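Step 1: inspect the first sequence and its C-alpha cells.
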Amino acid sequence: MTTGMTNGQRAEVLVEALPYIQQYNQKIVVVKYGGNAMINEELKHAVMRDMVLLSLIGVKVVLVHGGGPEISHMLKRVGKESVFVDGLRVTDEETSEIVQMVLAGKINKGLVAQLDNLGGRAMGICGMDGGLIQAEMLDARLGYVGRIREVRPQPLLDLLEKGYIPVVSSIGCDASGHVYNINADTAAAAVAASLQAESLISMTDIPGILRDPSDPATLIRKVNMTQARQLMEDGIITGGMIPKVTCCMEAIQAGVKKVFVIDGRVPHAILVETLTDEGIGTMFVKEDTP
C-alpha cells in the first residue's frame, strides 16, 4: 500500500492514525466477515493482516464469520440440494451436521491458521462452546435455523483477556444439544451487543448505503436510527440490505457505540474505516454527534 510513498508521507499516515489508535486501544471491535472477502484469497489475506495489526496495536478484535458458499459447495458434493425460504437456508438434520462441519471445522480452523501464520494469536470457537450462543428454532419451515435467545460472552472475554483473537462461527445450540444454523449478521450483532463493543464492522459486497444503488458517489456516510428507519420507509434500503441494516440498528439499540457497513471488496477496508479520517462506508450511530 505504501509503494512510491516518501518517508514523510508514511509519517503522515501514521500521525493521522494515532488518535484512532488511542481511541480504540483496549476497546472491543467485532468484525462480521463474509461476502467476496471470504472467497477471494487476496482479499482474505488483507482482512487477516488487518485483524492482526489491530490486535497488535491494542484493539480487542473478535471475528464472527459465516460461510454460505462453502456450505452450498459441500452440500452439492454430497448430492444434497440447497433450499432457501425468505433468504434463509432450510436446514434439516443432515444439513445441520454439514453446517457444523464446514463452519466450526474447515472455515473456522482455516482462518485461525491464517491469523497465526501472520503473527496473530487466534482461537477458534463456535456458538456451542461454553454455551456462547443459546438458540431456539426460528421457524419450523426452516428446520434447524436458529433465533438467538442469549449470548453468554464470558468465553470471549476470557480469550480477549489472554490476548487472543476469538474467531467465532455462527452456530448455536439449545439446552437439549440441538445445533442451529444462525445468520452471521445476526450472530455478529448479538455478540457485539453482549460485549458492549466500541464498534461492529459489517463487511458486505457494496460500498455502504447508497441513495442511488447504481451510483457509488451517493454513499451515505453517516445515519442515525431515525434516518435509517426513514431510508427503509423511502425504499432506499431494500431487499437483502434490510435484514443487514436491521441487525446494525439492533446492535446500536443494545449499546454498541458505532456500526459500520463497509465494502469488503476493497483491500484493507477495515483499516481504512477504523484508522483514517475519511473512512470508507456507512456509519450507524444512535444519535447524531458533532
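Step 2: inspect the second sequence and its C-alpha cells, then contrast the two.
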Amino acid sequence: MVTSLDDAPNPAYICPYDMACSNLERAAQVLKLDAGIVTFLSVPRRVLTVAVPVRLDDGTLRIFAGHRVQHSNILGPYKGGTRFHPAVTLREISGLAMLMTWKCALLGIPYGGAKGGIAVDPRRLSLGELERLTRRYTTELIRDIGPQIDIPAPDVGTSSREMAWMMDTYSMSVGHAVPGVVTGKPLSIGGSKGRDLATGRGVLITVREALASLNLALAGATVAIQGFGKVGAAAALLLRQSGARVVAVSDGSGGITDPHGLDVEQLIEFTRAGGRLVNFGGAKPISNAELLTLPCDVLVPAALENQITEHNAHAIRARLVIEGANAPTTLEADHILEERGIIVLPDILANAGGVVVSYLEWVQGLSYLFWDEDKVNQELEKLMVEAYRRVERQTKALGLPWRLAAYTLAVGRVAEAFMHRGLYP
C-alpha cells in the first residue's frame, strides 16, 4: 500500500484504490507477472495535493484541498477526469486514476491514467465562487498538466463549463490558446461533436454487443438505470431510441419505475427544468436500492462506487450488469454474481466511451482538423466493438469472468510496454 494515501476510509466503504489493487493482483497472477512489476504498477507515479484558497462572495477566505493523481504514463500522457464532490478523498482519486490506466490500455488508446478532484459540493457555491475555485485549482497544477503531459476532463460535479475555465487559465499562463490541455470542452473552443453522449453511447454499444452474445435482441430488452446524470440519462435516451424498454431510472432523490417503459425524453426535460425524478407523474416511485433488484434484462449502475455489494448481490435479478459508473460493484459482489451466472461487463470496458471521444477530441485539436458527429460516432463504435470482442475472446480462451479477462488484457499491455521501455536510469 502507498503510505501517503492516508485518508481514513469508512469501514463500510470499499475504496476504489483497494479494489483496483485487488484486480491488478488477480490479473498479475493469471499473467504470471514479476512481483516487482506488480508493485510498480500498484503505486501512482505522482501524487499531488495542493491548497486551493478561494475568496467567497461574503468576503471570507476558504481553503479547499485539491488532488491530482498521475498513476502511469507508460503508454502516453496522463488522462483522467476532474471530480468536484464532497466525498472526494486522495485514496478514491488514486483508485480512479489506476482505473483510467487500465481503461485506456484496454481500448488501445495511447494514454496513461490520472484523476483529479476537490472535496466540495459545487451546488453550494455561487457561479463566481465555482469559477474562482476551478481557476485557482488549475493554477496550482499548471506545471503538471498540458497536452503532452496530463489532460484533464469532466467528471462527477464538473462539465464543459469547468473545462473552459481550466483551458483559459492554462492558456493565459502560457500566453496563447492551448485547446489540447483539456477535453470535454465547449464546441466553440475546440470541443468535439458527440462528446456529451459519448459515455452513454459506449454503454449502449456494450449493452447491444452483450445481448447479441446471448442471442438476445436490443429491441424490447428491459433496462434499469441507477443514476440519471450525464452518463445515465444519455444511456437511457440512446437505449430507448434503439428500441430497448427503459423500465426504471433513479437519481439522488430516488427513482421511478414503469414495466411498460418510461418516456425518457420527457424525463430529461423534467429534470433539466429542476424536477426530481420521484415527483415525475405516471410512474411508481422506488428507492435506489429497490431499483437495483428489479427484474430486468440489463442493469446499468451509472451513479457512484459501491452500489452492488455482498449485501444486495444475492437479490440482483438482471441477466447482465453493465457498469456505467466507475467501481460500482465490490469484489465480494462480483464473486456472488459470477456464481449466480450473472454477467458483469466491467467499468474499464462499459463506460470507456467518454475517454474514447476525449482522445478523438485531443487528436482533432492537435491536428486542427475537426470531424462531423457521424465520423466521431463511427470511430467510437469501432474502438468500443473491437475492445468488447477482445475481452469476449479472452473470456473464452482462458475461461475467465469478464472483469478478470478485461484486466488481463489491460494490465498485460501496460506491463509489456514497461518491459520494452525498461527502467530509467
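Step 3: confirm your contrast with the notes below.
The radius of gyration is 21 Å. The chain has two domains: 16-179, 198-345.
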